[in-house]
Amino acid sequence: MPTHTFKLNGKQISVEAEDNVRLLWVLRDLLGVTGPKYGCALEVCKSCTSHINGKAFNPCSVQVKDIEPADEVTTIEGLPATVGKDLHPMQEAWLKYDVAQCGYCQPGQIMAAVAKVRQAQAEGRDITDADLDELRNICRCGTYSRIREAVKAGAEDMGA
Amino acid sequence: MAEHRRSLDRPSDRPADRRGLLGRRKVLGYLIAAPTLAVGVSWMTNESDPRAADAAVPSVPQPVDIFDLGDLQNLAAAPTSGLITVQLKSDGTAYFAVPRAEVGQGITTAFAMMVAEELDLPMDKVEIALADARPELLMNQLTGGSNSMRSMYLPVRTAAAIARQRLVETAATHWGVEAGKVTTRKGVLSGPSGRTATYGSLAKLAATAKTITVSAELKSPSEFSVLGKPRNRVDAHDIVTGRKQFAMDLDVPGAKPTMVARPPTINGTLRSINNLAALRALPGITDVVGITHGVAIRGETFGQCIDAIQKVDATWGPGTVDDESDTTVLAKLRAAQLPMAAPALPLLTKTIDAEFVFAFTSNSPLEPDCAIADVGPDSAEIWSCLKVPIVAQEDIAKQLGLPIDAVKVHVVQGGGSFGRHLFHDVAAEAAEISQKMGKPVKLSWSRTDNFRQGRTHPMCTSRVRVNYLAGNVLTYEQRHTSVETDFGHGLGEMITAFAADLPVGGNLSFAETIFALTQSSPYNFGVTTQLLNEIPLKFNTGSMRNIYSPNVVCAEELVVDQLAAKMGQDPVRFRRNFLKDQRLLAVLNKAAEVGNWGKAMPKGTAQGVGVHSEYRAAVATLVEIDCRPETVNRPVEGEGVTGPRVTKAVIVVDPGFCINPRGLEAQMFGGLQDAIALALTSSLHIKNGIPLEGSWDNYFYTREWNSPLDVQVVIMPNTSDSPSGAGELSVAPAFAAVACAYARATGTMPTYFPINHGKLSFEPLPLQPSTPQSPTDGLDHTF
Questions:
Q1: CB of B136 within 8 A of CB of B76?
Q2: Which residues contact B605 (CB under 8 A, 6 or more apart)?
Q3: pLDDT per residue as tens digits for the range B126-171
Q4: What's the gap between Cα A9 and its chain centre?
Q5: Is the confidence at residue B429, as pLDDT, over 60?
Q6: For chain B, which has fewer Cβ within 10 Å, the N-terminal or C-terminal residue?
Q7: CB distance from A57 to chain B under 8 Å?
Q8: Which of B284, B367, B637 sits opposite A104 (nearest CB)?
C-alpha cells in the first residue's frame, strides 16, 4: 500500500492508504482525527471543512494521493496553534456568542469562517453580510444568526 | 412531537398545602446506600408538572406491551430501581446520568443549572452524562414532545436539594453544631468559628449504609441565582475544539467502518448478491454480507465502503410504496378527507373554503444516522443516539434472540435529531450486520440513505371551512389528512403517567387521539371541529420537530388572515378580537410593538404574523418578507435555491418559567429556520417509490443566504414557576407567519408547501448505486 506524507496540524506525518481514499477518511478512520465531520462526502454540507495551506477545503473530496509532502493540512484540532494560543479568536467568539447547538457542523463552520475572514482581510476590507451569504455550511439546528454575530466579532479579533 | 395546544391563563395554580414558609416547597426522596453520598428521587412522589393534571390524556400501550411482566419484576425488584439519582463524588463533583438524549437542544446545560442551583455548586463541578437504557424506568426514558424540562425540573432539583441538606446535616454533626448554623456556597460548607469543609471532603461521611426516605425544601424562585440566568452550553468548549464525540467518533475496538448498498425504492429488499466474491476482494474491504434491506460492507475506511457500493451487483425485491409518487399520494389523501359537518346556518352566512397541501419533508439531522454494534453469541452492546433507548433495547434483543438484559444500550449525544432519533432503525441494522458478520461494526448511513430511505414527515392536506356573518365567525372546521405517522416508539411518561382506561387499537385511533389532544384552535370561532384522518401507506415516517402543529397552524393562520381581510380588519387587530388566551394576546401585542406592525413597506414586501400555544407556552412571531424579483432571482453559486427572503423576524415567547434564556433563544432561532425552510424551500419529491433528493444541495434546508439578517427574540417575564417545553415550540407560529407574509406580499395565498415544490430545482442523483461516489476536485474549490 502506498505511503503518503504531509504536514498535519504542524507535524509531518506518514500514513499508508490506497491512493484514491479521500483525505477525510484518512484523517478520521486511519489517523483518528475526528474534528472534521462526515455530513455528506459530496462536497455539499461542508461539515468537514479544514484548511490546506491556509485555505478552506473539503477533505471529503480530495484523494490522499493529491496531497503533496509539503502541503500543510490544518483541522479544527490544529487551529489554535496557528495563532499560538489555546483558542483561535474565532473559537473564542463562538464561545462568547454560544453559537453551537448540537455542535456537529461547528468545526466546519469555524474553519470556513476563518478562511472567509482571511480572504476579506487579504483584500483589505471588513467581512460583510454578502460574504457570509456565500457560506454554504449547513447548520441543521438553524443557528445562522449567532454564526453571523460570531464571525463578525471573531474577525475583529483576528485583525487585531 | 406535540403537546396540547393551549397555554393556561392561570399557569401558576398549585395546591397551597405543598408550600411552606418563604414559598419553599417540601419534597421527598431517598438517601441511597452507596460509598459516597447518593440521592434518589422517584418520578411519582413529586409531581413533575402539577399543572399537567388538567390535560386529559389517553392511554398508550400498557407497560406489558413494552416489557414482559417477568422482566419488569426482576428489574423493579431493587428498592432503588426507577429512581433518578444524583451522586456526589469524593472530588466534590456532582454526577447525574440523565435518562434523556442530548441532541443539541441544550438539556445537559439546563440539568447542570438545576443541580448547581439546589446544591449550591459551581456549574463546572456538575457532571452530566447520558444514561444507558434503563428498562426499569418504563416509559420514563423518552426524549420527545418538548417534555424534558417539564418532566425533570422537579425531580432533578429535588435530588440536588436533598444532597445539599444531607451535607449540611453531616457537617453539623461532625462539628457538633446545629444544622441551622451551617451554610453552603460554591461547594463549600461553612459553620461557626470559621470552620469550613468542601463537599468532596464530606462525600463519604455523608453516605448512608442503608436506603432511607428523607425530605428537603426546594428553593423558591426568588432565591435563584443560577436558574433563570443566561448560561452558555456546558459542552461549548468541546464543540469548538472538535473534541465533542458523536457515535462515529467513538473508538470501539474492532468496530470498523460499515455502510450499506441499498435498493432503488423505499424498503426494497435484497434478493441476491451477484458478485459477492468480487466485492470481498476489493481493496480495504473486510466483510460483505446480505441483509434485509441491502448489502452490508465493512472495511478499513468509510471511503472504501463507498467505493465498494459503486461495484455492487445485486437483485432487488420490491419496496413498500413502489407505485407511489407525489401525485398518487395526494389523490389518495384527497379521497380520504373527512367531510365537513357544519350545522344549518342563517341566511346571508358567508363561507371561506381552503385546502392546503404539505409535501413530504425529511427529518434528517446533519449527522448521518450512525450506530456501533458489537454482537456476540450471548450478548450485545450498542452505541447510538437514541431518544427511546428502552424500546431500542427490547426490539434489538428480540431481533437478535437474546434476553433483554444481555443487550447493553449506550446513549450517545446526537448531531441533531428533529424526530429522527425517536426511532432506532440504524441501531437495529447495525445489530443485524454485526450478528451476521460476527464482528463489531460502526455503521453509518450515507447522506443519500438518510434522505431516501430514512424517516420523513409525511405528506398531508389540511382543509379549512369557516362560516361567518356580521363580524362573527360561526363555525371553524379543519380536516387534516395525512399519510400515516409512525408512533411505534411509544409516547412516554407524558401519556403513561396519566394512563386512563381508554383502549387503543391500531395506529390510526392512537394518532387520532394524539391529534385531538394536541390540536385546538386558539380563537373564539363558534362551533369548532378539527379532525384527523390517515391513510395507511407504508412510507418510513415519524415526527419532525412536532407532529401536526406546523401544518395545522399554518393552514389556520392563513385562513385567519383571509377572514380578517373579508371583515375589513387588520390581521393583528382581528387576532386581538378573537383570541381566547390571555398569554397569547400578550405575546401578540408585544410582537406587534417590537416588530413595528403595520409600518409602511415597499410593494412586493410585507409583514406577517402567526401565534401558537403549546407545551404550556405561548409564542407570537412577526416576520418581514421580500418577494421582489431582484431578491427572488438573486443568484447563488452552484446548486441551491434563493427565492423570497425573510429579512426580519421577531419572536416573542412566554415560556412559563424560563430556565436558561440563552438556551431558549437558541431554540427559538432554530425553529424559525426550520419554519422558513418548510414554507419556502425544503421538501422531498416522491417519484416511483423513492424521494429524488439525495444531498443537501437537493433538500433545501435554510442556508445563510436564505436566513434573515435581523432576528430578535423577546422572552416575556415569567408567568409561572414551571418551565414549558421549548424544542419544537417556535416552528408552527413562524411557519404561519412566513406563509401569511408571503400571501400579503404577493397578493396570492399559497396553498402548496413549500412554495417552490412545484419546480424541481436540481438534477437528481442516480438511484443506483444508492450512494454516489465522492468527488475528487476538492482542491479546485479552496478559498
A1: yes
A2: B624, B625, B626, B627, B628, B647, B745
A3: 999 999 988 777 667 888 878 888 888 999 999 999 999 999 999 9
A4: 12
A5: yes
A6: C
A7: yes
A8: B367
Residues A12, A73: one domain? Answer: yes
**Are A95 and A119 found together in one domain?**
yes
The pLDDT of residue B492 is 43
- Max CA distance (Å), chain A: 47
- Put simply, the chain B residues between 686 and 725 with a CB less than 8 A from any chain A CB are 695-697, 701-705, 707-709, 711
Is residue B507 pLDDT above 70, yes or no? no
Whether residue A54 is found in the same domain as residue A99: no
* Contact between A42 and B307 using a beta-carbon 8 Å cutoff: no
* Domain positions in chain B: 25-219, 247-261+269-317+369-444, 326-361+455-478+521-753
Among B704, B706, B713, pick the best mutation site for testing chain A contact (most A Cβ within 10 A).
B704
Q: How far apart are CA B16 and CA B154, in angstroms?
A: 17
Domain tally, chain A:
2
A92 and A36 belong to one structural domain:
no
pLDDT at B515: 83
B408: pLDDT strictly greater than 80: yes
Give, to the nearest 10 degrees, the angle between helix A106-122 and helix A89-96.
120
What is the ipTM score, two decimals? Answer: 0.99
Domain end: A57, A79, A101, which one?
A79
User: What's the pLDDT tens digit per position in A79-126?
Assistant: 999 999 999 999 999 999 999 999 999 999 999 999 999 999 999 999
How many angstroms away from the CA of A88 is the closest CA of chain B?
9
Class for the domain spanning B25-219: alpha beta
Residues 138-157 of A with CB under 8 A from B: 138-148
B669–A contact, CB cutoff 8 A: yes
CA dihedral B697, B700, B705, B711 (to 10 degrees): -150
Dmax (CA) for chain B in angstroms is 86
Report the percent of chain A where pLDDT is more than 70.
99
Shared domain check, A143 and A95:
yes
A17 shares its domain with A69: yes
From CA B448, how far away is CA B451, in angstroms rounded?
Answer: 5
Q: Is residue B361 within 8 Å of residue B678, measured between CB atoms?
A: yes
pTM attached to this predicted model: 0.94
Q: Closest approach of chain B CAs to the CA of A16, in angstroms?
A: 11
Rounded (10°) CA dihedral B65, B70, B73, B76: -60
Q: At what angle do helices B549-566 and B731-746 cross, to 10 degrees?
A: 40
The answer to whether the CB atoms of A142 and B705 lie below 8 A apart is no
Backbone angles phi, psi at A74, to 5 degrees: -120, 125
Give me the domain span that covers residue A122. Answer: 81-159
Peptide bond into B754 cis (omega under 30): yes
CATH class of B326-361+455-478+521-753: alpha beta
What is the β-pairing status of strands B83-88 and B94-98?
A: antiparallel
Place of cell 490546506: A52
Of A39, A57, A79, the last residue of a domain is A79
Q: At B513, phi and psi to the nearest 5?
A: -65, -45
Whether residue A68 sits in one domain with residue A16 = yes
* pLDDT, tens only, B352-397: 999 999 999 999 999 999 999 999 999 999 999 999 898 899 899 9
pLDDT at B16 (0 to 100): 38
Q: Give the domain B247-261+269-317+369-444 fold.
A: Aldehyde Oxidoreductase; domain 4 (3.30.365)
Q: What is the CATH number of the domain that holds A23?
A: 3.10.20.30
B244 touches chain A (CB under 8 A): yes
Indicate which of B113, B702, B779, B781 best probes the interface with A, i.e. most A CBs within 10 Å of its own CB.
B779
On chain A, the residues whose CB falls within 8 A of the CB of B702 are: 142, 144
Cell numbers for B755? 412554495
